[in-house]
Amino acid sequence: MSVANGDFPLSSAEIDHFIDTAFAEDIGAGDVTCETVIPEGAILSATMNAREDMVIAGLPLMTPIFKRLDPDCTIETFAEDGERLSPGSKIMTISGKARALLSAERTALNTLQHLSGIATLTRQYVDVIEGTNARLLDTRKTIPGLRMLGKYATKMGGAKNHRIGLFDAVMIKDNHIAVAGSVEKAILGAKAAGRRDIQVECDTLSQVSDALKFGANSLLLDNMPPETLRQALEIVGGKIPCEASGGVNLQTIRAIAETGINFISVGRLTQSAPAVDIGLDYGG
């Protein structure tokens, strides 16, 4: 999978805001090291390389980050988001004012390493369930302020985006059911408000039956072992899509996928993905 910049989830204004926040945090009133050590007119060239196997994500942010500090810098990109890269793969070259490039370096690398780490871990999960009918989903377990970027990175790794936030779908979970009083009351409350996109989290087979009976549009089968998942799917009988969640990792996901489940959501894609190793080596 690769992606054109037009598919990137942030508008130009949102990218500017992201860079504003990042530079305010890192550069603040000025990079005192560059201002005192690097001659004002110095020029540097650099090559960004992959240092391990990875799926790259976040490249559309690189040019805006570097050009914010040096609008005249020259950048050439050799990869596309969603592409698998091996160690030593050249990602991009950049040439421009030394002070600017050095000041922007950490913001650029932190962003690319983090998003590529998410995409890389996601692709590992996708590879493990290849050949089944299950589709991998992300979750809302993202770093505050970085949800759209995190979900974009999972998409670059081959996952399907789940709901973006609390505003775009009804998901009735255990605490909602506890407060509402029952699965029935929770579903009927959502229907009374005119909602038709109603997913219900089910911990037991009896909840599966109730959710199906009272009109849920999809089910989230939480922390069910594969045998219980199969029983739940027999009750549903293919009437509505079902998602498995809870305790899913690279060692367990294949068995879950082989139950015939439609979707598997994994919070650790955005919550626990390690950053990948990307280097920016200067010379010239």
Describe this structure in words.
This protein is α/β, with parallel strands linked by helices and 284 residues long. It folds into two domains: 5-117 and 273-283, Quinolinate phosphoribosyl transferase, N-terminal domain (Aldehyde Oxidoreductase, domain 3); 127-271, Aldolase class I (TIM Barrel), CATH 3.20.20. Helices cover 41% and strands 19% of the residues. α4 (98-128) crosses α5 (147-156) and α8 (205-213) packs parallel to α9. Residues 1-5 have low confidence and may be disordered.
Defining key terms:
single chain; 284 residues; alpha/beta; Aldehyde Oxidoreductase, domain 3; TIM Barrel; 2 domains; 6-stranded parallel sheet; 4-stranded antiparallel sheet; 12 strands; elongated; disordered N terminus
Q: What is the assigned CATH homologous superfamily of the largest domain?
A: Aldolase class I
The biggest sheet amounts to:
6 strands, parallel
Report, as a whole number of angstroms, the end-to-end distance.
Answer: 34 Å
**SS strand fraction:** 15-25%
What are the secondary-structure elements, in order, as H or E?
Answer: HHEEHEEEHEHEHHEHEHEHEHE
Helix count, DSSP H or I runs of 4 or more residues: 11
Strand line-up across the major sheet:
6-11-10-9-8-7
Specify the structural class: alpha/beta
What is the total domain count?
Answer: 2
Give the second-level CATH assignment, the architecture of the largest domain.
Answer: Alpha-Beta Barrel
Radius of gyration (Å): 23 Å
Task: Write the SSE topology.
Layout lengths: L11 H15 L5 H6 L5 E8 L3 E2 L6 H8 L4 E4 L6 E2 L4 E8 H31 L6 E3 L9 H10 L13 E3 L1 H7 L2 H10 L5 E5 L2 H9 L4 E5 L3 H11 L5 E4 L7 H5 L5 E3 L2 H4 L6 E6 L1
Helix pairs in contact: 3-4, 4-5, 8-9
